[in-house]
From TrEMBL:
Its EC number is 4.3.1.2. Belongs to the methylaspartate ammonia-lyase family. This is methylaspartate ammonia-lyase. It is an enzyme of class 4 (lyase). It catalyses: (2S,3S)-3-methyl-L-aspartate = mesaconate + NH4(+). Residues 417-426 have a biased composition (Acidic residues). (2S,3S)-3-methyl-L-aspartate binds at residues 172, 329. Homodimer.
Amino acid sequence: MEITAIHATPGYAGFFFDDQRAIKHGAQQDGFTYTGDPVTDGFEEIRQAGETLIVDVELADGTTHRGDCAAVQYSGAGGRDPLFRADEFAPVVEGPVAETLVGRDASEFLANVDRLEEIAIGGSQLHTAIRYGVSQALLAAAAAAESTTRTDVLADALGTEPATEPVPVFGQSGDDRYTNTEKMFVKGVPVLPHALINSVEKIGENGETLLEFIEWLTERSQELGPDDYEPRFHIDVYGMIGEVFGGPYDRDEVVDYFTAIEDAAGPYPIQIEGPMDAGGREAQIEAMVELRTGLQEAGVGVDIVADEWCNTFEDVQAFVDAGAADVVQIKTPDLGSVHRSGQAVRYCEGTETRAYLGGTCNETATSARACAHVALATDAAQVLAKPGMGFDEGYMIVENEMRRTIARRNRSRQPELDADEVTADD
């Protein structure tokens, strides 16, 4: 089935773009916004509306298949691509991208996304958001052309055996951490609550506020969760442990704090994302290795999650090869085409590092559903509920997409399973 046209329409994403550097350096909240001036290139305000570029790939049979270009909430931080403006990039999608892909066979997903990744303008690869969104549309088009699921298209491209059960979903609470976390408990969400600990005020001058929150998590999970509920806690601290304690990260004061975190969470497992921000990839890897080694030597069972400075496929390789994390976030918009996220998950296979297929609250329902297929195709350790910060909507979108895909795959395989049963009975 031939690709006949590609269109781009600017729209809104599911949350906002935030200037992380300005927030970490003390910008004060004013209701939902922040006061002060932005410090990261491209920002006009510290918090501004998230944008998406809606991509429609038309096929020769007249059908249209969608993908959404999206960039992370904290664009331009931690080595990521700069702020994504939809109006600026619409001509790129309808120009060089369309010129490259129109006329190609939609069923050749891997060849098409490889061509997409090769497009360069002025000697530079396309913004990650463009590659991310266009590849989603190419994935949907390939699945339609082949009359199969997006999970199966990805599994064929990646050489994997898809998951047969939904991948554990990780819920994110946003700043309304208590109310949204209680919602997660009621629904029995397996990994939670993110908590958005992105300032000294939220962690405490000596880390005490975070410990109090974790103690509350442990107690309240058992009051509200379903029978036999055994959650895994996952807290993103945006480098604030490094801000409070500083390096070196294997010294007694830091290890003692992680011991307190483990005690507060017990008996449930806990993982801490982005414990520090060392300002660059190599420095971040060195600091993470130092911390992880210190925790292991002290017998502290808190896992650490790589996020800052772990953006591209090559970054993921570097963190995994160094043993710098127990879990690495595959931040889907930052890797470009969706198959690159799948390849990054696969790179973790056979290592001590688990793959968390993440992303951002600042995506869309379309990109979130595409990522659900990446999670199933690769059987990732966990997948983020997105978009938005209200929790319920993102959880519904990701969980339901996985459930319906598994059900569809089971229906399509039933004649084969029935035949195997007859053979076995004979």
